[in-house]
Each structure stands twice: as structure tokens, then as C-alpha cells.
Amino acid sequence: MAAEPLAPRGAADPDAAAARGAGVTGGSAAGWSDRFEQGLHPAIERFNASIGFDIALLQQDLDGSIAHARMLAACGVISAEEAAQLEQGLESVRTEAAEGHFRPGLEAEDVHFAVERRLIELLGPVGKKLHTGRSRNDQVGTDVRLWLRQRIDALDAALLRYERALLAQAEAHLHTLIPGYTHLQRAQPLSLAHHLLAYIEMAERDRQRLVDVRRRVNISPLGAAALAGTPVPIDRRHTAASLGFEGVYANSLDAVSDRDFAVEFMAAASLVMAHLSRLSEEVILWASQEFGFITLSDRCATGSSLMPQKKNPDVPELVRGKSGRVFGHLIGLLTMIKGLPLAYNKDFQEDKEALFDGVATCLDCLEAMAILFEEGLEFRPARLEEAVAADFSNATDVADYLVARGVPFREAYQLVGGLVKTCLQEGVLLRDLPLQRWQALHPAFEADIYATIEPRQVVAARRSEGGTGFEQVEHQLQRLRRQLDPGRGPGGRGAAVITP
Ligand code: ARG
Q1: CB of 356 closer than 6 A to ligand 1?
Q2: 164 falls within a domain
Q3: Are 121 and 236 found together in one domain?
Q4: Residue 391 pLDDT more than 50?
Q5: What is the rounded CA–CA span in Å between residue 92 and residue 83?
Q6: Which of 123, 158, 206, 212 could potentially form a cystine with 127 if both were Cys, beta carbons 3.0 to 4.6 Å apart?
Q7: Which of 79, 288, 297, 304 is catalytic?
Q8: What range does the domain containing 435 cover?
Q9: Structural domain tally of the chain?
């Protein structure tokens, strides 16, 4: 999330301000109580401020403040008339922001102060009543949760689009074969759809995790005030309900100092990125001349500034590279909270850039990968079939052939191992061996061995549940088609689908 550019007002040149011995607050005591006599050192003012990035929370801050003002009126703390004025003032700030006129500078410190200051400018004394029974500590926690809740829903939608792009490719390639690997060595042939559906399974778990995290994001800390609650007769459930929270924090100290939800979110986002990165690695390999399994379309590939023949898979490379940012934010958040005594500590201000960047990175990568699979690459079935036919990935099926005819598996395994060795020495494939050679190896071999080791048959034979056999994969396709149905809502409306 790109923070809106800062437009410091007044003494924009910090050095000039420093020369005068004051920050952009101009030597006044900023918004602090009368305890303060001097303004901040300009470098400290810049260091301390979060307005450069937390302006991204403006909408949530306004929503939270409106809910708070209404609650204060409902509880008789302020009059209905005052609440209406506050709401009107807050909506004016929203309009000013939409029109590009609300551009708080460093002197505001953060979005919460910026809004309150503007409100007081607009409304006069009534504006000063908004912060009754509230602290920035519960306020910022509320804003961040409201923001993240909405972004989780956006991520769910982005995951769904990406999954549908994979599904469409899988539908088209149920009967396309692709070599399956273990240790990146040819293992057994697969239905290409089966391979792609594995990534949808990962993404479905990602969605379930986000739904689960969302439940713990969606708890209101508002009304915990600074740390201990407030003597003001507020109603926490009133604000919680009007902001769409599913509950309130039971303990005010926990409410203002819990960032577990941010860590949990980043862990879930990290897994999304890990999955995207694994798929990216495969796409990069597939696009190489060595594999040649796909061609990249011009819309999703780049050239080289020097080598005219090059077409580079920049999209998956960037996705793979960006995964490190999100993993880094996870460690950053854990490290940020691990030594903090109760309750609020300014360290928490560091949660925002991590969350903003983590969410933006994840959303961008999901979108790019969705586009890549929608229109950025094409599988090359002929080339894939060629690859599958020209190897020993049907060797297990020869052993299984003997097993079906009563030979103990380990014995069959040894026999076939020896056969593969001879073939490699002679430079031939299993299918090239004449029947006498098979029968010399074991009398159970008959002419149907050739059909058995044909790659399409090798795939079709894997009928065990969850296997790559075409019927099994068709079954998985049907289930996922239903699961990814556009009619099914995203997380938060309780729609994560549990894989049977
Ligand atoms: N900008 C602060 C943050 O992001 C807001 C809360 C400040 N509270 C305080 N007591 N200084 O965490």
C-alpha cells in the first residue's frame, strides 16, 4: 500500500526549522497538554511521526470516530446534537480527503491527531469532545483491525481469482500428460490437471486460514481507553456492534497490547507467498528451453536489453523474489512484540508498514499469477507427451504388472531395476524391448505389457483415491468447480469450504 505523499505544512524545511530551534510545530507544544513547553526537535518530530503511512487508515479512523461519537450520545455522555455535529465534521474531513484537500503534515504526528485537529478547526469547542473516554491506544487498534478485516476479504477474492485461473487450465488439460518428479528426477507421469489442482488445494487451505485469522482480527479493543478502561459511562458493545465486530476484548490491557492477529495474518500471508513462490519456480523451469513445457505470451514476459532471442519469465521471478518481503515482515512483527511489557508501547507503530506492505505484496502477487495463468502462458501438449514417452517413468508399472501376477513387490522391483539398467546401457526404452526379452526376464509377461506401460495407461491406472487417474482427477475437478463457484461468498461470511 503506497502511503499518500506527505505534504508538510508550514516550515517544510526541517533544517531551517532546526535553526530556529523548533520543529514544524513551530516551537509550540504541539497537541500535548500544558505540561509541555517546547516543540519537538525537527528530526525527532520526523522520527516519531507515522502520518506518512498511517494516513492509509483514514477511512477506518473516521468510521471508528463516528461510531464512538454516536455511542457517547447513546450513553448520555454528549448530547445528540453534539454527536450529530461531530459526525458531520468527520464526514467533512472525508469529503476534504476525497477532494485532495486533507493533507496533514508532520505536525499532526499521526492520522488520529490529524483528524481530531481538523475536526476542532471545523467545529470549534464541540470537536474537543470527541476523544472523551477513548485513547489513541484503543483507537489505533480499532483502525488497524477494521483495515485488515477489509483487506482479508480482498485477499480472499484475489485467491479465488487465482484459483479459478488454475482451474480453467486444469479443465483444459485433464488428458494432457506431464512428467511427475520427486527430487526433480522423473518419477511417474501425471495428468497435468492433477498437478495444477495441487496448487488449488494449497490456496484453499490459505483461504481457510484467512477466514480463521479474520475471526480473531474482528474483535473490538475500543473502549479499553489507554490501558485500564475509563470512568466515562461508555458502552463498548455499542461501538463494537456498529463497526461490525464480532465481540469485544475481555481484558483492557490485552485489548491495547495484542498484535497476535497481525502475526497470525502475516503467517497466513507467508504461506500464500510460499505457495505462489513454489508454483513460480515450476513456471520458470517449464519456460526454460531445457523443459520447454510452456510458452509465455508477450503480455506477461519481457525481453533482454542485449540478447535479442530472450524471453524472460519476469512475473514468476518477481513473485518468487517478493516472498522474502512477507516472510521478513513475519519475523519483524514477532521480534517487535516479543519484549514488550504491558500495555501499549510505541513499538506497535511498527506494525503498520509491515501490514500495509505484506497485504499489498500478497495482493499484487496473486493478481499477477492469476493473469499469468489466465492469459500469460500456454502449455505445449505435444512437447509434454514427448517428454513423458521418452523416459523410464513407467518402470513402477512394470513392477506392478508382475505384482498383479503374484510376484512379491520387492522381487519385481529388483527385476525391473536390472532391466532398466540394461536398457540404459543399450540406449533403448522399455517399450522397445521385444516380447522374448520380457519373457526371459519373467514368464508372467505377455503381449499386454506394451499397453500397460503406455504413459496414458500408466496415468489412467492410478485409480486410488486422490491419485492421478483421469477418473479421480475428474472427480476432483467437479468438487473444486463447485467449491470455487462464484455464488459462494468469501471468508468472513463463513464460506470457507472444508475439503471432504
Ligand atoms: N501512531 C500510534 C501507533 O501507530 C498511535 C498510538 C499512539 N499512542 C500513544 N500513546 N503514543 O501506534
Answers
A1: no
A2: yes
A3: no
A4: yes
A5: 14
A6: 123
A7: 304
A8: 390-479
A9: 3
